[in-house]
Amino acid sequence: MTAHVVLRDITKRFGQVVAVDRLNLEIARGECLSLLGPSGCGKTTTLRMLAGFEDLDEGEILVGDRVISSSFKNYYLPPEKRDFGMVFQAFAVWPHLSVFDNVAFPLQIRGLSRSEIKEKATKALTYTGLLDVRDSFPNELSGGQKQRIALARSISFNPTVMLLDEPLSNLDPKMREVMRFEIKELQQRFNFTILYVTHDQAEAMALSDRIVVMDFGALIQQDDTPVNVYLKPANKFVFSFIGLSNFLEVEVADGGVYLKGAREAGPVTAAVPSHTPGKPPTLACRPAEIEMAPSGGVRGIVTRRVLLGDIIDYRVRVGPAEVRVQRNVRKPVFGEGDACGLRFSALHWYDESGARVNTSRGRPL
Amino acid sequence: MTGTDRKFGIAELLLVFSVLVLVVVVAVPILLIFWNALVVDGGLNIAGVIKVLGEPDVFQAVVNSLVIAFAVTVVSTILGVFFAWLVSRTDLPFKETMKLLFLVPFMLPSFIGAIAWKILLSPRAGLVNKWLMGLFGTEQPFFNIYSLWGIIAVESMYLFPFVFIQVSGALERMDPTLEESARISGAGLLTITRRITLPLMLPSIAAGALLVALYSLAHFGVPAVLGTEAGIFNIPTLIYQKIYASGGRFEAIRAGTILSSILVMAAALILYAQNLILTAGRFQVIAGKSVRPMLLKLRGLKYPLLLLSVVYIGITVLLPTVTIFLVALLKTYGLSFSLENMTLHNLTYILFTMKLTRDAIWNSFYLSLAAALVTMLVGTLISYVIVKMRVRGKFLLEFLGLLPFSVPGTVIALGVILMWSGQFGVNLYNTAWIIFVAYIARYMAFALKSTSAALEQVGDSLEEAARACGATHWQAMKDVVLPLIKPGMVAAFFLIFLPAIRELTTSVLLYGPTTRTIGVAIYALNEDGETVYAAALSAVALLLIIVGHWVIKRVTGTTKIGGAS
Amino acid sequence: MADVRLENLAAVFGAHRVFEGFTLTIRDGECFTLLGPSGCGKTVVMRMIAGFEHPSAGEVFIGGQLVSSAAKKVHVPTESRNIGVVFQDYAVWPHKTVFENVVYPLQIQKVPAAEAKTRTMEAIAQVHLGSLEDRYPSQLSGGQQQRVALARALVSRPKIMLLDEPLTNLDANLREEMRFEIKDLQRRTGVTILYVTHDQEVALAISDRIGIMGKDGSLRQIGDPHAIYTDPDDGFVFNFLGVANFIPVERKNGAVHIQGSDVPLRVEIPPAAHERIAEGEVVAACRPFEIDLVREGGAARGLIRRRVFLGPIVTYFVDVGQVEIRVQQDAAEAFRGGRALEEGETCGLAFQALRWYDKASVGKEVSA
User: CB of A37 within 8 A of CB of A199?
Assistant: First the structure.
């Protein structure tokens, strides 16, 4: 697919701080791309540059084949001319206008006829399930409703690009799930190109076609589908950002890999990942991807057990290391102080710079 | 109701005491006004009321009050909104300085400003008039400050900060995404301002404007200095004139109470309207996180508008203030401003020699101090009952406490006269006590507001935590509540002390030969033509106020205390 | 250390009836959580034990001593009950340093200065705030302030500790850490704890026993967390503790079907439940992870309408007849193990556990 939105070498500085450092990004037509990263990494700044609320210091932004901002050509199209839809974290619906007037606002600005405005606004309200409340005022409605108003307002003029800035952060968990589906459905129906910013990896996973994980300076750590980002994190940063992690030091001996200082506990795996001798990579694994059994595997003692509902969270001491394991509550329960054996079903290896080495499957030993 | 511990009826006792205080100090004087206005010889006399209202001077005063209040409100609103927008939403340079300077009129008594403008623009002797007449060689003065527009202009200068503060505060705290979402929807700046920003600002604008209207209606000083000469009276000045001209005759008092009743009703209406607007609640536009509002780039207009602001500040703030100080230093009024015509003698004279002024300074000091202290302490107690105690009948306290807000100083003075001039066995007339009582009534609402705000900040859980640690109710009060509301109490003290020390409206109706206040002394000196001494005492008062504000800032860290007197 | 006994406690404020007939015993040394939705009255119960509220009826005993009784006109004031309280908003005094906050209970008790100082520093160390005793609360983070509150509640060696949603205002990571610290503290000191919250995760994680309150103020079930989670007595508790599928069923052609489904449901149904299906009085319930998706066979057949990948879990929304059933699969198993299914596929559901509850969802379990 040809790229619809192109961000080329964009840079933004605030004083001495480089908030966005030569970012290159392309979004295909109809694709939903999430920028995922910690607070302050530059993802919101990137979105605001695409929207036009911040002007870039260097680089250029193209939508379709049209340049909308370029430092080379000294060109900057203000936000009101960019024709994007945008949804904000705090909804930003106007309290002094009714739901209908909120949604009709962009249509009125564009000078459409009254009948056209009525038609398009009504359509937008229908798609977001707000037709019944179109004469109400925002303060009479819930958070989820207000976000729907914001959505309806931004789709009413049929934009091709939608920008969403942490739109679900101010909603309660149940509402968040509902709105995730609604946004997804709208995207499937209208085929928007979406740039979505969030710090919540579950949200990014659920909604996106592609996730871009960012670190400070808007430096891209990984750009891939949600499943790939989860199953094959490109580096340590991505691994720990995307989910619960164990990072364990290992030592290589007798043709096997052992947890550091715990050779008597037994080998983790016989498949030794490539490395410079003497500097073995760090083992990363997810608590949910470790099997626990009364015996066999790497031997350890349960030091802590916490019931979390669906999951029981264990801390298992293996030599000097403490391994976190999560098991479904259906499975047999271990008590604190019990001995157990751990089998690592998925091993990720990262060298000292944090880069991925190779994954190996834990084979039964 | 199952509730907190019974404190062996102490809660009930405190409630009764508080109600009693407020009834005696606040409610009864006001009731007496209405009683005096409406009841003659034990019977309701509406016809008499209408007759009085029909008298030409009374009728004219009511009309003048309304006209002035209306015009001042309009002008103040335009000025306030314009400058607030300039300071909060554009890239005007020196914004922080401008903000401070625009707030200066808040601190200064407007009647002193009126005196300054009299010096500058009175038709025959006004300095500016004389200068312009000399420049253009004309016989007719350009400006006559003794006129309706003169009153309106001067009042506006001193009242527009009410609107300015509300609007600039709201503009700065407004959620910027409300405007950003309009922008991304395709709207340019003008459309956004017209359809989004201004409508959302309406409650703040209205709040400020109503406050201006309230103060203007109740204001004595400026119309007294500038209007009486030309026979232009508003309600407070007419009340004063009738009472003093008549020497306390019944009909005069009655006219006064009737006029006062009108004032009170108008004020109550305004406050009611304001309450409606503020509690409409629809417009929750304040952002939670710290915000960076959208700034308009002024480009070519930047320096012209800066110049305009500077000129405005220069004319309305600097010019009158400088004039007062310069005139205070003149050997004789009418001399030109040159070094050989200047002396410090006037200042030393009024401070150390002249009995009138020395007494006035002393009176104002101890009256304001005492009133502030008592009002603050009683106010704290009453606030505690309202905010923290679960006892039936609290609403009565709340209502009584807020009453004085809507009662102008003139009316309180009149009410206090009716109550404490011997009718009920106690005669405080012409003593300092009557002023003291009037001040307490006048400023109780301020104390209540400030201390109850402080108390509300002290969450119940802070006291309960102390109880759980083993502290009794009183220990918890002493160790937790009191230390935490101390700043609020100090603020309340200054909130009363500073306005009281410079006020005129209330004490002008209550002073006796030995109980003049600073405000009354300045006014009297001006009336007697002792312009230089009036200016000198004004200069001293201004210095006092500036020092007072500096002290407050150091002690509490706030700067916003003031209002017209 | 003491136990707490509540006998027939009632909270009736005029026309507003919060709860009546509330009876509960919290054992000496246990960590008991009162769990329920907002407004159910759990905080009122705590406040009555603390002495901040008077019961309209019933009695409160702490350590065997009667401290509150409306009928007998007994009310021992809060300050004499020797309790520790931790509030939701921490309630640390901003005008006192950490040390001054924590030493306060000892000062009230007139403990000699030297001993007070030692005990205070001990308490501060116990909550890992070692070098911060001279700081003011405004200089501390939320989690640190909460620890000050904990230390202050513990320093006087109270008989019982009452905690009112103390972790609600903390972020997720901190909540996890503080949960553990509270549990740890309790184990070390042996103090009896009543923890009040609406967050079932915390309740499950730290309690020896949980008591679940319904919206009407009644105690639905009391028991050990694991047992309550896996096998609650009634539908309300089941729903409150975690995501639940409630599956309406009907009788069709002599067999039991999931509502709207043509295929009979192939599970063993306990006879007590079986009788009431015809009257439409019972509903089946299970957790999303208690269902396995299979390609062929299964106790019921359905169509996968939606699949959501959330990281460690994949959630499927499966339409069976008129009912939407949520199924959860471990992501690693799904993608690496090749067990993932696509949207639009038909599949079978194999129920690992199915419970039957009164349809009103608030009744008692029909049978296990």
Answer: yes
Any CB–CB contact under 8 A between C184 and chain A?
Answer: no
ipTM of the complex: 0.87
CB contact under 8 A, C54 and B468: no
Per-residue DSSP letter, C314: E
Closest CA to A181 of A220, A128, A138: A128
Report which of residues A49 and C159 the model is more confident about: A49
How many angstroms from the chain centroid is the CA of residue C96?
33
- Give the whole-angstrom CA distance, residue A342 versus residue A348: 16
Say what the pLDDT of residue B293 is. 67
Q: Considering only CB atoms, which chain C residues are within 8 Å of A244?
A: 312
Closest CA to B460 of B535, B387, B519, B520: B387
Contact call for A88 and B199, based on CB within 8 A: no
Please report how many Cα atoms fall inside a 13 Å half-sphere around the Cα of residue C92, on the Cβ side: 29
Instruction: Say which residues have a Cβ less than 8 Å from residue B338's Cβ, sequence separation at least 6.
Output: none
Contact C14/B at CB under 8 A: yes
Q: Look at residue B470 and tell me whether its pLDDT is greater than 50.
A: yes
3-state secondary structure B100-133: HHHHHHHHCCHHHHHHHHHHHHCCCCCHHHHHHH
Find residue C282's DSSP bridge partners: C358
> What's the pLDDT at B292?
66
d(CA C170, CA C182): 14
Neighbours of C155 (CB within 10 A): 25
Where is pLDDT greater, at A274 or B478?
B478
Task: Give this prediction's pTM.
Answer: 0.84
Q: Is residue B527 a contact partner of residue B118, using CB atoms and an 8 Å limit? A: no
User: Which residue carries 């300039």 as its tokens?
Assistant: B86
Q: What is the pLDDT of residues B340-363, one digit of tens each?
A: 888 888 888 888 888 888 999 999
Is the pLDDT at B6 greater than 60? The verdict is no
Q: What is the DSSP string of B503-522?
A: --TTGGGT--TT---HHHHH
Which of the two residues, A275 and C316, has the higher pLDDT score?
C316
C186 bridge partner residues: none
Strands A210-215 and A32-36: parallel
Distance from the Cα of C107 to chain A's closest Cα (Å) equals 38
CA distance C243 to B164: 53
**Measured between CB atoms, which of B177, B187, B283 is closest to A80?**
B187
From the number of C-beta atoms within 10 Å of its C-beta (0-12, 13-18, 19+), residue B471 rates as: buried
β C83-86/C160-164 pair status? parallel
- Residue B516 · residue B360 · CB < 8 Å: yes
| C18 or B338, higher pLDDT | C18
- Contact call for residues B497 and B440 (beta carbons, < 8 A): no
Strands laid side by side in the A298-307 sheet: A290-293, A339-344, A298-307, A311-318, A321-328
CA C182 centroid distance within chain:
15
Over pLDDT 70: what percentage of chain A? 97
